């Protein structure tokens, strides 16, 4: 959606195909990081964006057994917004789509499911699309596979990926939040269990980590035992854990880290999760996808308006974005293997001594804040705006 917006804004004819009727779906992460907010600022949309209902996370911390760890402090970032904005993904997508629609060059077709690519002379010439009405063929000079971690585009185009293991999955659910709970977005580790709690105003969005593939065992042990496990890691929610009445509102995120070896073929480029599914560690998936979109628009927009994009341009996008993706995924794999793997099922896990330095030396908190908030290669909007069709400028 972001790339569609940026390209349409630069005067490129764009069709965005979305298989669902709208964007209102299960929780898929709400973390809009300072790097993405900076992009919104560069687009002149920040003020309006921040009018959407949101919460602002300025610090990240963790309760590890008896110890509290203050891990990240965003207040020193060299960005306009020194916080993570928690905005539901559907609000974010609707916002971008509404702005994109102001350009005559933008078209969004919903209930349009891509089922295959069109291949002609070893080149991807577009996609085959299933709709509630007729099936369509959408032809394009360049097809972008931005269809997420289960990308059909990358599969049908035969792009190969490397899969990196993940020792955990995540169960996401909501529990009511009370004013007395405190504000801070927290990771919690206790008794071999781990949970993340995002402050969403009147509720907590909870992410409870389990060993990969353990869900069926957890279900067999029963909901009451699960509720007890949740309370053991966050005792203050004991008075409302009964809100979890059945398994329905508890959604499984199967954690996956993978990356395409080659993100492109003649006529096709994959970005975002379709090119590299991210672990939820750091909540960076949305932001990396946005950064990919910005880099792609910077590199390709002008070429696309002149219809001169080449395979070398697609390679440039991969070269530009593979480096931050590799580093981020490398760090995620390291943390999965060295922290999460050691925590889950190990009641004796305590805060490692060196980590206590984050509490004593506040400047250290700037490092995780930088990695999470901005990432390894910040992209800036360089591509201009062609013609607005309303008063948005
Ligand atoms: C439960 C969960 C929690 C997460 N939490 C976080 C978090 O806290 N922070 C964070 O940054 N990231 C989080 N993520 C990851 C984040 O959602 C992704 O990294 C990010 O959305 C990737 O963006 P994308 O545009 O590449 O793909 P997606 O956001 O997956 O978008 C792909 C789009 O393509 C559509 N689509 C798919 N297949 C087709 C098809 N065949 N035809 C047409 N349309 C299709 C989908 O409906 C979807 O709208 C989470 C993911 C999940 C599942």
Description:
- By secondary structure, this protein is an alpha+beta fold.
- Helices cover 31% and strands 25% of the residues.
- It is built from 11 helices and 20 strands.
- A 7-stranded mixed beta sheet has the order 5-4-14-15-16-13-17. A 3-stranded antiparallel beta sheet has the order 2-6-3.
- Helix 1 (2-9) packs parallel to helix 8, helix 6 (215-221) packs across helix 7 (223-233) and helix 8 (285-305) packs antiparallel against helix 9.
- It is globular.
- Bound molecules: flavin-adenine dinucleotide.
- Residues 17-20, 27-29, 31, 113-114, 146-148, 152, 172, 253, 272-274, 278, 280, 283-287, 289 line the site of flavin-adenine dinucleotide.
First and last CA, distance:
20 Å
Q: Count up the helices.
A: 11
What are the bound molecules?
flavin-adenine dinucleotide
- Please bin the fraction of helical residues: 25-40%
Low-confidence segments, given as residue ranges, are 388-393
- Outline the biggest β-sheet: 7 strands, mixed
Q: Trace the largest sheet across and list its strands.
A: 5-4-14-15-16-13-17
Number of strand segments: 20
Helix and strand composition category:
alpha+beta
Report the average pLDDT across residues.
Answer: 93
Specify the overall morphology.
Answer: globular
- Rg for CA atoms: 22 Å
* Beta strand %: 15-25%
